[in-house]
UniProtKB/TrEMBL annotation:
Pfam families: L51_S25_CI-B8 (PF05047). One of its GO terms (cellular component) is mitochondrion. It is found in: Mitochondrion. Residues 55-136 form the Ribosomal protein/NADH dehydrogenase domain. This is Piso0_003294 protein. InterPro entries: Ribosomal_mL43/mS25/NADH_DH, Thioredoxin-like_sf. It comes from Pichia sorbitophila (strain ATCC MYA-4447 / BCRC 22081 / CBS 7064 / NBRC 10061 / NRRL Y-12695).
Length: 154
């Protein structure tokens, strides 16, 4: 299996075998659910994620999983927010240990709020982001989803 295929499989687990159903499932995962779809307070304008470019282990794994699993839904529902990804290249284990594992949220006044993501789980980071951005849940009737065509239903 190629590196790209491995990454794709890890990002979208438990997908159906049909290509159309895979695409529908991926799109519906991005649009989220009532538990994962949140809209930031409009005063927040920029969302920076600091990611280590090479393989991530240890204290930064939660942030990497958050980036893959939860960030697409935040981006989908917060189209007026500038999402910036800072990929950090490290050469040694010492450099890796010094790398920031954080999210920086900017508001319209120029203030910044940093969220330390070291040793945090995906859910822990998600809760911190919701709190820091004063996010509110998107009503379920406003969450777009693509219905499964009848010929693909079992």
């Amino acid at each position: 299996m190629s590196q790209k295929a491995k990454g794709s499989a890890a990002m979208f687990k438990n997908l159906p075998k049909s290509r159309i159903l895979k695409q529908i499932t991926r799109l519906n995962n991005i649009s989220g659910s009532p538990e994962t779809a949140y809209k930031f307070n409009p005063k927040y304008t920029k969302f920076e994620v600091y990611l280590i470019k090479n393989s991530v282990l240890g204290s930064a794994i939660g942030l990497r999983k958050f980036w893959r699993q939860r960030l697409p839904t935040f981006k989908f529902h917060n189209e007026n927010v500038d999402f910036v990804f800072k990929r950090i290249v490290t050469q040694t284990k010492e450099d890796l240990a010094k790398c920031p594992t954080k999210i920086v949220i900017h508001d319209s006044t120029g203030s910044k709020n940093e969220i330390d993501c070291s040793n945090e789980t995906v859910d822990g980071i998600f809760e911190k982001v919701v709190k820091a951005t004063e996010a509110s849940p998107v009503p379920s009737d406003q969450i777009d989803s693509i219905p499964v065509p009848p010929q693909y239903q079992h």
